[in-house]
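--- STAGE predict ---
source: upstream dedup step, 1 unique chain passed
mode: sequence only
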Amino acid sequence: MKLFYKSATLALLAILTGLSTSCSDDEAEFTGILEHRPEGKDGMWVINGQSFSVSDEVKLDEDHGPLIKGVCVELEMEDGDVKEIESEKMEKCQQKQS
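--- STAGE serialize ---
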């Protein structure tokens, strides 16, 4: 049943946000503006109005700057779980809006 909810959530995100999926149906990426994050990793992150539950096991990549409110980020998911959140250049988010 838990797998069903994860799959349904991922499918809904794809429909609502134009989520781009990779070759595998089990992997997905989401790019947008970081609107909210907890003090640490663990908790709810909000990107472009979409909430994502993140655990302490998620990799954070700050190569393009700190993961703070207002920056462009890319979130990678596998099997419905967030695996990595990385900062991106703002141009990547602006391109998606054009």
